[in-house]
Amino acid sequence: MTVKMRSIAVVAFMMGAALTACGAEPMAARQADPATSDSRSGAGGAFSAVVADAKDDVNQELTKLLKEEKTLEEVAQGFNDLLKLPEGDYVLATEECGQANAFWSPDDKKITICYELLTDAVAKAEENFSTEQEKDDYVTGVLLDTLFHELGHALISIYDLPTVGKEDDAVDQLSAIYMIEIGEAGQNYALQAAQSYFIAAGDSDRDSLPFYDEHSMDEQRAYNYACLVYGSDPEKFADLVGETDDSYLPQARAERCPEEWAKVSAAWNKLLEPHLRSS
C-alpha cells in the first residue's frame, strides 16, 4: 500500500476521532443507525462531498483512492454531526487547482482541497523521511491540518465569528486544538503539521518572503503549533523544549505556552459552543 493510500485511509478515521472528541457522533454509531445521520443532515444545512475528476495521471490515482475509501464522505458527515449548520448546501471538495493549495469560498459555501497539495505532501515526505511510518505520519498530519484549517475559515464565515488578529492564525489554533484533543495520535499529527512548516521555511527564499501575506511566516506557524502541543501537557512534552537545532521550542517561548493553550482552547470552545449539536 502506497503512502498516499495509507494516509488517505487513516485521515477519515482520525478526522472522525477528532470530531467525536468535540461532540460529533462516532462513526460506528452512524453506520449502525444511518437514519440518525440522515435526520441530522436534514436539520438545517449540510455538507456534501465532491471528488472531482482529474486530468493528471497522478491526480487520477488520487480520485480513485478517495472514491474507494469514501474519505470525503466520512469527513463531510462528521461535520454535519458536529455542527448546527444554517440552511444551505455546503460542499467539501477535492479537485485540480494547478497549485498546492486549499481554500474556503464563502460565496460557494465550499471547502476545496487541491490534489496538488496532497501530492506535494507525499513528495515532501519522500524527501525528508526514511521510514514508511514517518512518511505516513507526516502526510496524515498535513492533510488533517489542512482540513481543520479550512474548516476554521468556514466556521468563521458561516457563523460570523469574531477574530482578533489574523484570521489565519486563529484557524491554525483551531486546527491544533482539534488534533491535540484526539489524544496521543493527534498530538503527533499536530507536531507533524509543525514539522511541515519548518520544512516549508527551509525551502523558502528569505529575500522574497511575503511579509505582507495574511499568513504568518512558516517558522512562526511551526513554533505556534509546537507551543500549543507543549502547553496542553508540559510534563508529557518536556522533550520538545531546548536550544538545539532539533528542538521544537526554545525555553523563552515554552514558559508561556501552558497559559497560551488555556486561553486559546477556552476562546475557541466559547465561540463554538452555541453552534455544536452536543451543546
**Mean pLDDT over the residues:** 85
Percent strand equals 5-15%
Global morphology: globular
User: Poorly predicted ranges (pLDDT <50, ≥5 residues)?
Assistant: 27-32, 36-42
Helical segment count = 12
Number of DSSP strand runs: 4
The biggest sheet, with number of strands, parallel, antiparallel or mixed sense and barrel status, is: 4 strands, mixed
Q: What is the topology, as strand order, of the major beta sheet?
A: 1-2-4-3
Query: Span from first to last CA?
Result: 40 Å
Q: Summarize the helix and strand pattern as letters.
A: HHHEHHEEEHHHHHHH
Describe the secondary-structure layout.
Elements: H1 3-21, H2 27-32, H3 34-42, E1 46-51, H4 57-69, H5 71-82, E2 89-95, E3 102-105, E4 110-114, H6 115-128, H7 132-159, H8 167-180, H9 184-203, H10 218-232, H11 251-254, H12 257-272
Parallel strand pairs: 1-2, 2-4
Antiparallel strand pairs: 3-4
Helix pairs in contact: 1-4, 1-5, 1-7, 6-7, 7-8, 7-9, 8-9, 8-10, 9-10, 10-12
Structure report:
With 279 residues, the protein is α/β, with parallel strands linked by helices. It folds into 2 domains: 3-128, no CATH class; 167-271, no CATH class. It has 12 helices and 4 strands. It has a 4-stranded mixed beta sheet. A hairpin with a 4-residue loop joins strand 3 and strand 4 (110-114). Helix 10 (218-232) packs across helix 12.
